[in-house]
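for the recovery benchmark. tokens below, seq after
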């Protein structure tokens, strides 16, 4: 899902770049995309083993005593991690909430900017309608009990 989100936000940046007087909007959307990529990177970071290790029979590796084996990832993660199907990885609750919030912020900014652009420049009404449909689709996928 992350790749599709990234492509969608790049599409929004490209359409914003074609808007007359859209330099500030384009730079804002570009900055949000960079933050979005950074938060995704934080979700993919595997925690280090720092405590005394024990042998995990399922993944055949030495892992920290407090780690639990995830059957979907086939790796061991701390007890505080959970498997998030959207990212297809085990993540911390705080990182998942941060990622979801930055995606929702990007959707809100895209929706607002496309609305303002469509009011000032009527051909952008098509972009606004596409943004509404995309927001509905993405928000239903992100509504997970974290």
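predicted aa per position
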């Amino acid at each position: 899902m992350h790749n599709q989100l990234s492509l969608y936000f790049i599409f929004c940046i490209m359409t914003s770049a074609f808007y007359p007087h859209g330099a500030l909007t384009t730079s804002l959307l570009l900055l949000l995309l960079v933050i979005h990529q950074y938060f995704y990177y934080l979700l993919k970071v595997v925690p280090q083993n720092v405590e005394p290790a024990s042998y995990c029979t399922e993944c055949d590796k030495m892992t920290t005593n407090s780690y639990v084996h995830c059957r979907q990832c086939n790796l061991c993660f701390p007890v505080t991690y959970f498997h998030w199907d959207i990212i297809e990885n085990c993540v911390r609750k705080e990182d998942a909430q941060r990622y979801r919030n930055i995606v929702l912020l990007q959707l809100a900014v895209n929706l607002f900017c496309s609305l303002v652009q469509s009011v000032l420049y009527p051909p952008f009404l098509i972009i606004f309608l596409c943004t509404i449909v995309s927001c509905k689709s993405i928000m239903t996928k992100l509504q997970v009990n974290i």
